[in-house]
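DUF2178 domain-containing protein
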Amino acid sequence: MSKKKTGLFLVTLVIVASLTIISMIIENNVTFFSIVQLAILLIMFFSYFTWARSGEDERPVPEDELGKKITTESGLVSYKILIVLIFGFICLDYFLHESANLLLIVLFAIGLTLLPIIEFLKARSYR
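Tokens:
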């Protein structure tokens, strides 16, 4: 991508993130939308700088072999990190409220079983 497009993207990203954070501070209320909006902005930022290509660099693209390997490995690592974080939040919730949140426990159980189930289904599709 050209430097103009990258600069415009960064300026837009900073403006939108700043407005979201300022509205969270002024209203003194953190809503579901504001958290999701910041998460979407982070997704856009990291995706742009991971896959954006300029004419002179040799960055991988999602469609080539290296891009698929990067996507697969990062998915597995993020899955494992997410499982550990969910377990940590279950423990934190238990120590703060002296009872475990049932929905977090169900989410943790689903998270633990999801990868083996998907691997099983994918392996069956190749038979």
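The first helix runs from residue 3 to 27.
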